Amino acid sequence: MNFEIGDQFNFYGKIEQINTSSYDSFACNVVSEEGEALIVRIPSGEDVSINKIYYFETEAIVFKEKIHLLAKKVTIIGELDLDDDLKERLMRAFYHYAPVNLSEIRKGIESKLNLIENDVIKQIVNHIYKNVQDDFYLYPAATKFHHAYISGLSYHTNSMMKLAEGFLLVYPFLSSDLLYAGIFLHDICKIEEFDSYEGSEYTLKGRLVGHITMGASLIQETAKILGLEDKEEVLLLQHIIISHHYYGNFGSPKKPNIAEALVIHFIDNIDSKVTELGEELDLVKIGDLTSSIGVLERERYYKHKLSK
């Protein structure tokens, strides 16, 4: 793109490299939503980070006899009030994004949470949801293995809630309130376990404590804020969180001892593995085998002629 001195150019872009400078501004390599490579000069003292999306308000200037874009204002997108469609468009442009529509996922999850009738469970879920919903719809469910992409956490959660519908139809003794609340909460502290939703790495707290322990603590803290800490529902929700991995070597200190906890463990296991299998099958032609799949004990799966 060619600019004339004084041209105004506002755009969304992701910073890919930051170059130090002794001048009153420093240069950043920025890729635009359209995939153009741009050099943007950021005023010294402005705090920006690699791999983050910003809204740049710039003006073309001359710097060392070349046209550069000088940022008049730089705003990270987390500080902007963006609707779901725009968020999704930007995430798809700059990152590996879940194969879903963000608005549909939000609608699906909120519809299930709205079905919760138990007052204690509803208060706890609503309180947590209100505080985390912005991050919840952007974070991955893992750094690798399954749903390891932007919005993977909400995609995984919504799929589990769909699977839970079938279990409730077949097994009417199950509590839909505990199932839907437990599914929403089971991985909620992935938001704290990972350092960001873009190219996530584990935080120190994530490595030393982990999302299971953090999730159980979050429920207890929320119950205390709401004056509900002595209610049995709090204990049931905590049990679902601490048992959903089932095995101690996978992070669960307890095995499931209520029906809903067992079902959530099975649903979590099914969705994480079958989703990953489907994505691997998409990469090969009919008649070929997938590469070995980590979540499926490194087995390879055949893509047969009846595959869809």
Per the principal axes of the C-alpha atoms, what is the gross shape? globular
| Overall pLDDT | 93
Low-confidence stretches: none
Structural class: alpha+beta
How many E strands?
A: 5
Using the CA coordinates, give the radius of gyration.
23 Å
Structure description:
The protein is an alpha+beta fold and 308 residues long. The protein folds into 2 domains: 8-79, OB fold (Dihydrolipoamide Acetyltransferase, E2P) (Beta Barrel), CATH 2.40.50; 84-281. Helix content is 43%, strand content 16%. It has 10 helices and 5 strands, in the order βββββαααααααααα. The chain has helices spanning 84-94, 102-113, 119-136, 152-170, 176-186, 190-193, 204-208, 210-225, 232-243, 259-281, and strands spanning 8-18, 25-32, 37-43, 53-63, 66-76. Strands 1-2-3-5-4 form a 5-stranded mixed β-barrel. β4 (53-63) and β5 form a beta hairpin. The chain is globular, with a radius of gyration of 23 Å. The model has no long low-confidence stretch (mean pLDDT 93).
Brief sketch in words of this structure:
This protein folds into two domains: 8-79, Beta Barrel (OB fold (Dihydrolipoamide Acetyltransferase, E2P)), CATH 2.40.50.140; 84-281. Helix content is 43%, strand content 16%. It has helices at 84-94, 102-113, 119-136, 152-170, 176-186, 190-193, 204-208, 210-225, 232-243, 259-281, and strands at 8-18, 25-32, 37-43, 53-63, 66-76.
Question: What descriptive keywords fit this protein?
Answer:
308 residues, alpha+beta, OB fold (Dihydrolipoamide Acetyltransferase, E2P), 2 domains, 5 strands
